[in-house]
Amino acid sequence: MRRLTCVVLLALVAPAAAQTARDRGIARVEQACKGVLMAGIDSSRENPKLADRGDRNLEPGDPLVSAAYAQAVQRLVPVFKSSFPNDRVLISLSSSNVVNAWTQYDWAQGTNGLHVALVCVPTAMVDFMGDEDELAFIIAHELGHAVDEGCRNYGTMQRGNKVLCEIRADEIGYRLMRQAGYSPYAAAGAFGRIEMYIGETQTGLVGFLAQLSSDHPITPKRIEHMRSLLIDEWRAAAR
Q1: CB-side exposure of 78: number of CA atoms within 13 Å?
Q2: For residues 110, 161, 159 and 162, what is the CA-based torsion angle, rounded to 10 degrees?
Q3: 115-122 and 102-109 as β-strands: parallel, antiparallel, unpaired?
Q4: Does residue 137 contact residue 76 with C-beta atoms inside 8 Å?
Q5: What is the pLDDT of residue 152?
Q6: In which element (H, E) is residue 88 found?
Q7: How far apart are alpha carbons 134 and 145 in whole angstroms?
Q8: What angle separates helix 159-179 from helix 67-83, to the nearest 10 degrees?
Q9: How far apart are CA 170 and CA 224, in angstroms?
């Protein structure tokens, strides 16, 4: 009788413990992403699928997520896994009115000592971008941050090094976006949309001086970088 009681108790406690651990994980994501978790995708899964907080697989037409977001993450994650098989990333959609996206490089410790990066995408950013191709670049840019070990301590780095981190994330993001089949012009489109939103208009010497106080490159320089990557593509294709 005692043995049966122990088995019953274990059967009841084990699911509760697992549920508690998952709840703690969700709470951590919501704290980091500054909003209620709507959906997420884990690149470490054998067949990554977008899922809600209850771990139910979501399709692009699900009312919880926009089709643009669902399709973008489900196209980018296989490319990410292929390009960076030793990295793990969680891409989380949070219900938030913040028009931005960000990455926590060492969010958690994964199996085999691998770090786990967390990419936060607020619903307001998804709505703001609108276009799937441009949204895909924004997410891909954050994936670039997720794999850049040189920028692990981004928060404490000097401004000039942060600028270099942004440039590298732009380049990695561009390549991931292109491998996923998105338009090469989407990166410039995303930058242009953001530039109109924040009202950044400085160019030339004024833009250069503005850059001295920012941890991001000025938008014209970022677009110029994307253009150089596209030209490299054309040259490679012409060989």
Answers
A1: 9
A2: -40
A3: antiparallel
A4: no
A5: 84
A6: strand 88-95
A7: 17
A8: 100
A9: 11
pTM of the model: 0.85
CA–CA dist 60, 70 (Å, integer): 5
- Residue at token pair 């699911």: 15
Quickly state the pLDDT bin for 232 (edges 50, 70, 90).
very high
End-to-end CA distance of the chain: 78
Alpha helices in 148-218 (DSSP H): 159-179, 186-198, 204-211
What phi, psi does 54 have (nearest 5°)?
Answer: -95, 5
Whether residue 69 contacts residue 126, with contact meaning beta carbons closer than 8 Å, is answered with yes
What's the rounded Cα separation, in Å, for the pair 25 and 237? 45
pLDDT of residue 97: 93
3-state SS assignment for residue 34:
coil
Q: Which residues pair with 104 in a beta bridge?
A: 118
- SS3 for 107? strand
Q: Is 180 left (phi over 0), alpha (psi -120 to 50) or beta?
A: alpha
Name which of 47-56, 67-76, 85-94, 194-203 the model is least confident about: 194-203
Classified as helix, coil or strand, 97 is coil
- Strands in 36-42's sheet, in edge-to-edge order, are 51-52, 36-42, 88-95, 115-122, 102-109
Structure tokens at 132: 């799937």
